[in-house]
Amino acid sequence: MDNQKLLALISKFLNGNCSASEEKELTEWMMHDEGVGSWWEEQIGKSPDMMTEKQKQDVLRRINAEIGSRSEKSSVAGPSVRRRRFSRLWRWVAAAAIIALPLLSAWVTYRVLDDSPRQFVVRANRGSQTAVVLPDGSEVMLQASSVLTYDSRYGRGSRDVRLAGKALFDIQRDPSHPFRVNSESMDITVLGTRFSVENYTSEDLVRVVLSRGSVRLDAEDMNLTMRPNECVQYSKKSKTFTKKNVNAEDYFGWSIGMLYFDNQSFVDIMRELEHVYNIHIQYAPKQWSGERFTGNLPARDFRAALDVLGKAGTFKYTVDDSTVYIVKE
Q: Do residues 260 and 251 touch, judged by C-beta distance below 8 A?
């Protein structure tokens, strides 16, 4: 099996999209291909620096131990034993693939590490987005200039992450293991839901928008439970909540290439555009005091976004390298 096809099949397997015939093909490769061990060694060697060399070697040792025992055990075991063995082997393969392959940008799971807690940090740099699949299958999309942190104990007693920035969460339901987004100003607790959080450390407001399920917000001595299609803002300065009804999906458009602003100030919009497009915008904030905007902007092309916004805000702009100069008309 050539590398390109193999990577595509493993990606489909990890995303749960493998057909029965494709999974059988992968299993046959695991059972009979003599180069499987060296293939994994090569892939893990290409992995990003989210693991130490010792951790990478531990992953390889465990995979090779499973592969090394497959023929011995499968030749004498019945079908049910073989199924259990291949299931266990695929669990290790999935964990290693998610770490090693550049197919998925930032998948790290505690199953390939020892029991001592380790911290994992996933970053979306300015001008980029990063997709994360957590060890329980929950999905996170990080907006530009955002950081998600969790450790190797994730999912054992609780599911805790820390966020600085903006993210869209799609969380697997697990009533026995609540999912929490922690920060200095507020904690968010959910069981299984789809919601977004915007919490940049340099900004006063924390914004949470809920699409389905329910979440509880805890800040200081206050708490608030959200229902679907609600937007709650928490002020770090005044320590107050404000809540309004919205169409939640409007707020998630940035994950698919569209920015939505709801009665936001020009200054806030400029700050968001700088994060998203990795540009620097120069303008006179006092000229825009009190002006607010509502609407959609394309998230893939900053010139197209500024063209739309310029018509509404009556300004012209010029671009010099990565700096945008805005002049109010």
A: yes
